[in-house]
Amino acid sequence: MIRRRVVVSGEVQGVYYRDSCRQQAQAAGVAGWVRNRPDRTVEAVFEGTPDGVDRLVSWTKHGPELAIVDGVAVFEETPEGLSGFDIRSTA
Fold first, then answer.
1. Can you give the C-alpha Rg of the chain in angstroms?
2. Is position 35 annotated as part of the catalytic site?
3. Position 6 pLDDT exceeds 80
4. pLDDT at 91 over 80
5. How far apart are CA 61 and CA 65, in angstroms?
6. CA separation, residue 35 to residues 18, 43, 51, 57, 61 (Å)
7. Do residues 68 and 14 touch, judged by C-beta distance below 8 A?
8. Which neighbouring-strand residues pair with 47?
9. 3 flagged as catalytic
10. How confident is the model at residue 90 (pLDDT cuts 50, 70, 90)?
11. Span 48-59, pLDDT tens digits
């Protein structure tokens, strides 16, 4: 199991980014959460198999159809054993 935290910048709020991310995570069997941040970025944490997490990290680089992603910062973290995938309220 691995864990990655990503911070996505660009036109990523108000374009169904969080719900699309949740759907992608559930399809990949990845646990974690996603939330909007006050600085207009989206932050997400993914935990799961290396293949599943890598799939989600790759997806964040383009996001849903209406998103315009300018950048993705990826941080390696220690897994916490999360289960399920949540949309959290703004940080």
1. 12
2. no
3. yes
4. no
5. 12
6. 7, 5, 23, 15, 16
7. no
8. 3, 31
9. no
10. confident
11. 999 999 999 999
pLDDT tens for each residue of 61-73: 999 999 999 999 9
Are 23 and 34 within 8 A, CB to CB? no
Strand 2-11, strand 31-36: pairing: unpaired
| Residues above pLDDT 70, as percent of the chain | 99
Q: Is the CB of residue 68 less than 8 Å from the CB of residue 10?
A: yes
Q: Name the residue type at position 31.
A: A
Backbone angles phi, psi at 77, to 5 degrees: -135, 165
Which of these is catalytic: 4, 18, 22, 55? 18
- Report how far residue 3's alpha carbon sits from residue 51's, in angstroms, rounded to the nearest whole number: 11
> Comparing C-alpha atoms, which of 51, 53, 65 is closest to residue 20?
65
The active-site residue out of 3, 4, 22, 36 is 36
State pTM to two decimals: 0.95
